Amino acid sequence: MSLLSEETEVFxxxxxxxxxxVFLVRRRTPAPGDTGRTAAALGAELDALRAEGxxxxxxRILDGERPDGGEPAEASxxxxxxxxxxxxxxxxxxxxESARAAxxxxxxxxxxxxxxxxxxxxxxFEAPSPSSALAGTRRLEEAGWSRVFRTAxxxxxxxxxxxxGPASRREDEWAFFALWSWNSAWQAATAQQRxxxxxxxxxxxxxxxxxxxxxxxxxxxxxxxxxDHIGVWRVPDVAMVDRAMxxxxxxxxxxxxxxxxxxxxxxRLDDALRRK
Length: 276
Fold this sequence. Notes:
With 276 residues, the protein is α+β, with helices and mostly antiparallel strands. It is built from 7 helices and 9 strands; from the N terminus they run βααββαββααβββαβα.
């Protein structure tokens, strides 16, 4: 896959074909007695997808591949199976590039956004390939996902690797979902202007990582969406995102993009399914 923008000090191009499965959902009112059956059916389907190489939480996606390049063993809900991969960041204190994380199980996870957005939950899984991503969403819908959620699915191949620094904490419960498309000013810009823009934005991204954000990298969505990219951050709190957006505005991050942002609090998918 060709890159829409170049690698930077913060972001390194990703090998392979792993593919984001992003979902923006509104809850439906299930039929009486249907919630438990649907939750069980979806749980079984998600177990099968995990066994086929799907990663079912932002936390697991941030872990990336094993350092030796091997695939992780199958995990039960709630368990992490490998170390985090940390990409080097310009202007981030020494040690960022070697940060490691303890094993943790991969619980299917969503983020509750209904308190401030027009959807109830957002989330991202990652499939081993685009074809697996498309087939898996169909399987989830057939297993009952569509009975409990009205969903906008966004699928796209990974472009840049995750960035996880030493200030990121596994217990952080918030996530920030940033969708964007390049605007007409970016389309008209020269390669030199785009490179200068990327370098300015790198200053802000490095500050985000120092402040505790862990970033899933970047996934391409332009194949079947109005959005060109998505990046998801695990963050300690909403205040950190507010500080980050002020810094991104200072370096003129938004002059070349049209963006939509969601922020939500981590919750188990099973709890979201069974919520009254």
